[in-house]
Amino acid sequence: MAGGGIGVDFSLKSLPKMLPGLLLCVMLGWLALQWDEMTSVWASNQKEAAVILKAEKEGKPILPFAEYMAKKDESFKAKMKEFEEGKAKQKPRRSTVLPKEDYEQLALTKEMPFKYTVGERVLQFQLTYVAVLLLGGMFVRNTIGLPKIFQAGTIAARPIIKPGIVILGAFYLWSDVLKVGAFGLALVIAFVMGTQILISYWGRKSNIDDGLAGVMGAGVGVCGVSAAVAAAPVVNAKPRDFFYAIGTILLFGTLCLFTFPYIGQALGMSQPVFGAWVGTAILNTAQLVAAASWYGHEALLTANIINIVRVGFIPLVVIWAIYFYVIKPATAAGKAAGQKLNAWQVIKDKFPVFILGFFVMVTLNEMGVFSTEQKNILGRELLKVFFAIGFAGVGLNIAFEDLRKAGGKAFVIGFTAATAKAVLAAVAVILLGTEVFQVKQ
């Protein structure tokens, strides 16, 4: 097997040794996805229940369940008719309907069911399947321990994240780059690369392990998990490196989610300007979408486009990692020994092949190859499955001793860099103004 990095050498001979650990990761991944699905349903139901309770407080009685269902059906049929007549562009989806038992409890008590509030809080604080697998796996590893029979398989599970990154490409379009214009593009490049370069040099100066600084820089510079996974093979990232990077991203994103909308209003940001700000500054996509949605629809449109363009610069982050963590030190060593390094050959050898798969999927999506139903299958099923199995393996290999050795410097550097990025991005988007970031539909 490979050393400290995320890469693993697979072979039929080693499969029996890996199988128990792989099966364990599959099981834990499945359980985490069930948690994710359950809490998402609760959160969706919470919104529906909140609407019902608000109407009840305004003097509208809560209907019997049969009438409630009939009203929902009538509304859906009316929307479907508009779609069939060409009056609506998008095919309507059925709105959230509360289960009969929960609806009747709501009607009786006039109070929000506790599990719905739990679901809402879980999504607010991003305790999704990725966070659950990292924290849960780390808890198991450092309490009851990981028996030797599972160790090889949990290490082998980690690279299974990579096919998930490839599938992610089916949700992006090259044409979206044009929607942000030259100024928006320059903004993304400046802050993506600026953050990565800052963390790289700061980490080196602070004697932080290259794997930790590389993953932290990629995650904070671009978009969290995807960029961290892309940079991991180049910098030989360890499980603890993912924990630090993702922990920093989620904590920073949670703080941004609850503060940015108020800051945006205080600064008088228009919706497009606010969308450009959160699209640049908030690192986690779910938290970015939540903050932009809170501010308004135009903010969400701009934020989504900026975020999509940001993901497109993952290769630049990877190439920088190859240069800074591989080519630069090797060149210095070669000069000392009187040898010359072929930089292009190093890039070809080190560049993660699965990133090319990501861009093939983007191109196929641009060509209209994937239907909405196919994207739902790819996104809701395959992508999450690969991520869940991979992060189960990552979580089970995070030891407190490794975290102690890494220290808290990387977290401080990542959080400080993310804060600086947010402040400077706010200044930049305000100066550029609404017209630059308004998405033309």
Quick one: overall form? globular
Low-confidence stretches: 1-7
SS class: mainly alpha
Helix content: over 70%
Cα(first) to Cα(last) distance is 50 Å
Strand content: under 5%
Please give the radius of gyration in angstroms. Answer: 24 Å
Number of helices: 21
Describe the protein's topology:
Blueprint: H1 15-57, H2 65-84, H3 100-109, H4 114-124, H5 129-142, H6 148-157, H7 161-168, H8 176-205, H9 210-221, H10 225-235, H11 239-266, H12 271-281, H13 285-295, H14 297-311, H15 314-337, H16 343-350, H17 353-366, H18 372-395, H19 400-406, H20 409-432, H21 434-437
Helix pairs in contact: 1-4, 1-5, 1-6, 1-18, 5-18, 6-18, 7-17, 7-18, 8-9, 8-14, 8-15, 8-20, 9-10, 9-11, 9-15, 9-20, 10-15, 11-13, 11-20, 12-13, 12-14, 12-20, 13-14, 15-16
Write structural notes for this entry:
- The chain is mostly helical.
- It has a domain at 158-437.
- The chain contains 21 helices and no strands.
- It has helices spanning 15-57, 65-84, 100-109, 114-124, 129-142, 148-157, 161-168, 176-205, 210-221, 225-235, 239-266, 271-281, 285-295, 297-311, 314-337, 343-350, 353-366, 372-395, 400-406, 409-432, 434-437.
- The protein is globular and about 80 Å long.
Summarize the structure.
With 441 residues, this protein is mainly α. The chain has helices at 15-57, 65-84, 100-109, 114-124, 129-142, 148-157, 161-168, 176-205, 210-221, 225-235, 239-266, 271-281, 285-295, 297-311, 314-337, 343-350, 353-366, 372-395, 400-406, 409-432, 434-437.
